[in-house]
C-alpha cells in the first residue's frame, strides 16, 4: 500500500467497507452486501479513521484517503477507477465548485471552508447544494468518489491563496425603439 506504514495501513476489509460507501451505499446496504453486522462495519470505519488520522465524520475523508493512497485497485474495484476521459457535460464543475469539493473531501466544515476561501457561509452552502444536485446524490462519500473518478480532485488552492475573481457579467442595456 503506497505510502502507508504498517501502523497506518488499512486492511482489505476496511478498504472494502470504504469502497461500498464510495459506491453510495448506506450502512444497512453495506452490511447486506459484505455480510457483516453493523457493529463490524462501524468498527472497520472507526479503526480505518484512526489509522488514517481522520477525525469528525470520517466517511468522506476515508474515501479521499483511499484515492490519495491509490488503495482502490482497478482489478478489485473497476467501478471506482479514475477515468481518463473528460467528464460528461452534466458532471463538469467550474473552478469554484471544484475548490469547494476539495475542501469537502478534506473534511472542512462550512465555516472552515468559508474562512479559508474568503467567501460567505451561504456561498459555500450554495456550492455544496449545486455539487450534490449535479452529481445526483446526497451521499458525501459518493460525491467524493465521483469527484476523483472524473478528475475534479485533488484540487485545492494553497493556504491563503485567494480565489480567482469572478467574471463580471455584462449589464444589459435597454434597447429603445423609436
Structure description:
The protein is mainly α and 178 residues long. 50% of the residues lie in helices and 0% in strands. It is built from eight helices and no strands. The longest helix is centred in the first third of the chain and has 15 residues, at 38-52. The radius of gyration is 19 Å and the shape is globular. Mean pLDDT is 85; it is low at 163-175.
Quick description:
This protein has helices at residues 12-22, 27-34, 38-52, 58-68, 95-105, 110-117, 121-135, 140-149.
Backbone CA Rg: 19 Å
First and last CA, distance: 74 Å
Percent helix among the residues? 40-55%
How many strand elements? 0
Strand content: under 5%
Could you tell me the mean pLDDT? 85
Question: Quick one: biggest sheet?
Answer: none
Tally of separate helices: 8
Order of helices and strands: HHHHHHHH
Contiguous uncertain segments of 5+ residues? 163-175
Class per helix and strand makeup: mainly alpha
Characterize the overall form.
globular
Core attributes:
178 residues
Topology:
Layout (H helix, E strand, L loop, with lengths): L11 H11 L4 H8 L3 H15 L5 H11 L26 H11 L4 H8 L3 H15 L4 H10 L29
Helix pairs in contact: 1-2, 1-3, 1-4, 3-4, 4-8, 5-7, 5-8, 6-7
